[in-house]
Amino acid sequence: MVLLRWTLPRRWVGPLLLVSSYVFYLSWGLRYGFLIGGMTGLAWLAGLTLERWQSRRRAALTFAIGCLLSILAYFKYSAFALSQGAALLRLVGIGAHDPHLRIVLPLGISFFTFELVSYVVDVYRGEPAERSIVRFALYVAYYPHLVAGPIVRAHELLPQLHAERRFDGDLFAEGVFIALVGYVRKMVIADNLAPWADEVFAHPQHYSTFGVWMGAVAYTGQIFCDFAGYTDIARGASMMLGYPLPENFDYPYLSTSITEFWRRWHMTLSRWLRDYLYIALGGNRHGRIMQYRNLFLTMLLGGLWHGANWTFVAWGALHGVLLALHKAWDTLLRRTSWAERARAYLPYRAVAGGSTLLAVMVAWVFFRASSFSQAGQVLHRMATRVPGLGELGVAARPARLTTAIAFTGVLVVVHFLGYYRVAITSHRLLPPIARGLVWAGLIATCYLLAESRAAFIYFQF
After folding, report:
1. Are 182 and 151 in contact (CB under 8 A)?
2. What is the spatial distance between Cα 439 and Cα 240, in angstroms, rounded to a whole number?
3. Do 180 and 123 share a structural domain?
4. Core-most of 78, 121, 271, 305, by most CB within 10 Å?
């Protein structure tokens, strides 16, 4: 694909990428092509309508967003809503059976739906509509970001598709490096942390307090490396094609507040929620109480976006509460001069960073657990001192725990090196031969240390 992209005449590049993106997506099922194609056509027509017919702008916006979100809701939440409705009827004494719906969630629908909604809203706010359906369809279906992000705004990719791109050797080399780093993150770090996390969440009652905490730590590292690894692969592949995509992670576990965490974690989703939900709810324009409410509702809906399960809602609600509490704490500190100055010192930053990471880790328990019962068992074991190794403990899975501890240490080192941009800065300074050796080392690392796992975690969203 990269070879064809840089050898074909410019007029063929867009159609080539569009066809290859649809072939990639249709490999999961032919019927999904009609879905993404129909939603793309709807948003494209809505954009043209918003730009040309001023008198119908609000109606066109409402209709387009309503249709897009209704399609997402049908595939993602209809079975959940019906099952909860049946449970509610049983609660009041009316016999009802759980529906047996077999609705398969189309791959990446949460991501490209948000991209389509952002495009329609941006045109409504004054951004120019895209005239070419081919170019717009490529923006939506562009395969590096199609399945699991990053969530790319139209103004971040469409101008690149308009412009003539010349081959840039440095950009290409950086893309190769970033993609290989992503493979190491996913195949080596995330997939070696996953077995212990899976063991602990499957049978938390069988493990000691230390073992369960290590399970939570392992999942904390796994989900970061799994998702950030996919994003690195997507960004690297796109850079090799000549189209840089926005960063999605900025070493969030070194954050010193929950607000900073959401500026560093899944940054494209955070910005989407801020620009299209939090601000639409009123943002911080109507006093602190309304700001806290808006933060809570934004994160509650952000949790629901991740999946049709009450545990995701609880995860989002918990983050909403934490964000509101941090805003209140931040306001209090700003009123006290000595407290404001204390933020610059290492002891404060260490305590703030540790407490933020602890809160994030506890919240991940709800995200990982399949039910409140399972989450409760894990949290109870984390809060109750159970000495030793537990019933199964290390004796049953010694290699898995040892591996989880070792790769947690690797993740800590990688976080600090990445925070200070050591790897990417060093790579840019290397001569071509040295870069090739680094690439070979990353490939060898994947070959020697990779653990075979299933698909990326965020494929399910």
Report:
1. no
2. 14
3. no
4. 305
Is residue 116 included in any domain, yes or no?
yes
Active site residues: 306
Q: Give the count of domains, the chain.
A: 2
| pLDDT tens, residue by residue, 173-182 | 999 999 999 9
Q: Within a domain: residue 295?
A: no
In a domain, 107, yes or no: yes
- Does residue 268 share a domain with residue 228? yes
Residue closest to 122 by CA, chosen among 147, 141, 139, 143: 139
Please tell me the distance from the alpha carbon of residue 134 to that of residue 136, in angstroms, as a whole number. Answer: 5
Closest CA to 419 of 260, 309, 216: 260
Give me 324's structure tokens.
């509101």
Rounded to whole angstroms, the Cα distance separating 217 from 240 reads: 34
Distance CA 112, CA 368 (A): 24
| Residue corresponding to tokens 């389509």 | 116
Where is the domain boundary, 142, 166, 190? 166
- Final residue of a domain: which of 135, 166, 197? 166
What is the per-residue burial (b if ≥16 Cβ within 10 Å, else e) of 126-161?
ebebbeeeebbbbbbbbbbbbbbbbbbbbebbbeeb
Q: Are residues 244 and 388 in the same domain?
A: yes
- Rounded-to-integer distance, Cα 432 and Cα 143, Å: 28
Q: Does residue 311 sit within a domain? A: no
* Res. 86: pLDDT tops 90: no
252 plus 332 within the same structural domain? yes
Closest Cα partner for 311 from 373, 392, 367?
A: 367
Which domain range does residue 340 map to?
Answer: 170-283+324-460
136 and 245 inside one domain: no
Q: List the end-to-end C-alpha distance of the chain, in Å, as a whole number.
A: 27
Q: Clarify whether residues 78 and 197 are in a common domain.
A: no
Q: List CB contacts of 316: < 8 A, sequence separation 6 or more.
A: 299, 300, 301, 302, 303, 304, 306
Give the residue carrying structure tokens 């190794």.
389
Of 72 and 342, the structure prediction assigns the larger pLDDT to 72
404 and 277 assigned to the same domain:
yes
Confidence of residue 36 (pLDDT cuts 50, 70, 90): very high
CB atoms within 10 A of CB 19: 12
For residues 141 and 217, state if they share a domain.
no
The HSE-up count of residue 294 (CA atoms within 13 Å, CB side) is 20
What is residue 259's predicted lDDT score, i.e. its pLDDT?
95
- Quick count: other Cβ atoms within 10 Å of Cβ 287? 10
Supply the pLDDT for residue 459.
73
